[in-house]
């Protein structure tokens, strides 16, 4: 039945489904996972890097984390080329808002702006949906630290902790069980690394397969920090030590 209705994004099936949008979401489920956790001190983003060849130079730039403005960052899961287009659009929108109103763009306003663009690609013929989901982390004077998730349909929502990409359902189930509302940034980081480590496709968690970043406030200024390989290795070691400790106790 679906084959009669999946050739165009503008045609609903009798069940009220847009199959091309669902296919875009399926493509994201095959991508590397990304986990976001909101804490009282900031937001943590942790993502899995898919290394396709040992000849790739992985230390030149980040693959999953992007700085949008001084107070907003994003983690992506899906087609990187699609993500680059939307990231550039988000950066341009943030700078236009700053130029027009002389104040940083509210986090939700930027997310809504990108989702309006993504929704347009599901409504007009000759276009395909963007095959990428985002985790948006940021801080503004209206709502403090915030974490949003957006998908190819143009939907978005605010979350305390969430996951996109591969094995996102099992990751979200784990986050529901272990997330605490008043957790600190350190606890949020440990939880995010633990969830990614237990649900990523790779058998072992290693520093070269993970990217970690945080959005915090230091001396009244918002700081986006991407962890170095040494810092990532330290966090991964904490996770593996905890796993070994649990195994020996059992």
Can you put this structure into words, describing what you see?
The N and C termini lie far apart (50 Å). By secondary structure, the chain is of the alpha+beta class. Strand 1 and strand 2 form a beta hairpin. The model has no long low-confidence stretch (mean pLDDT 89). The radius of gyration is 19 Å and the shape is globular. The strands form two sheets. It has a five-stranded antiparallel β-sheet. Helix 2 crosses helix 3. The longest helix has 22 residues.
Instruction: Enumerate the spans where pLDDT stays under 50 for 5 or more consecutive residues.
Output: none
Cα end-to-end separation: 50 Å
| C-alpha-based Rg, rounded | 19 Å
Binned, the helix content reads 25-40%
Using DSSP, what is the number of strands? 10
Specify the overall morphology. globular
Structural class: alpha+beta
- How many distinct helices? 6
Q: Determine the mean pLDDT.
A: 89
Widest sheet: strand order? 8-1-2-9-10
How big a fraction of the residues is strand? 15-25%
The helix-strand sequence is: HEEEEHHEEEEHHEEH
Task: Tell me about the largest β-sheet.
Answer: 5 strands, antiparallel
């Amino acid at each position: 039945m679906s084959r009669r209705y999946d050739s165009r994004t503008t045609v609903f099936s009798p069940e009220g489904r847009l199959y091309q949008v669902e296919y875009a979401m399926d493509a994201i489920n095959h991508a590397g996972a990304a986990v976001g956790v909101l804490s009282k001190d900031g937001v943590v983003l942790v993502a899995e890097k898919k290394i396709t060849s040992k000849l790739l130079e992985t230390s030149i730039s980040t693959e999953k984390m992007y700085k949008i403005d001084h107070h907003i960052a994003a983690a992506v899961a899906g087609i990187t080329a699609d993500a680059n287009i939307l990231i550039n659009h988000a950066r341009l929108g943030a700078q236009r808002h700053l130029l027009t109103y002389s104040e940083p763009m509210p986090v939700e306003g930027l997310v809504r702006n990108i989702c309006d663009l993504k929704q347009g690609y599901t409504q007009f013929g000759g276009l395909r949906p963007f095959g990428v989901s985002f985790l948006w982390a940021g801080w503004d004077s209206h709502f403090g630290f915030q974490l949003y998730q957006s998908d190819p349909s143009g939907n978005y929502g605010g979350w305390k902790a969430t996951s996109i990409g591969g094995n996102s359902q099992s990751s979200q189930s784990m986050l529901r069980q272990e997330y605490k509302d008043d957790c600190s940034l350190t606890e949020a980081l440990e939880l995010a690394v633990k969830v990614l480590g237990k649900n990523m496709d790779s058998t072992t968690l290693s520093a070269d397969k993970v990217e970690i970043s945080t959005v915090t406030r230091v001396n009244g200024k918002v700081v986006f920090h991407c962890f170095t390989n040494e810092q990532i290795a330290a966090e991964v070691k904490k996770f593996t030590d905890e796993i070994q400790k649990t195994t020996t106790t059992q």
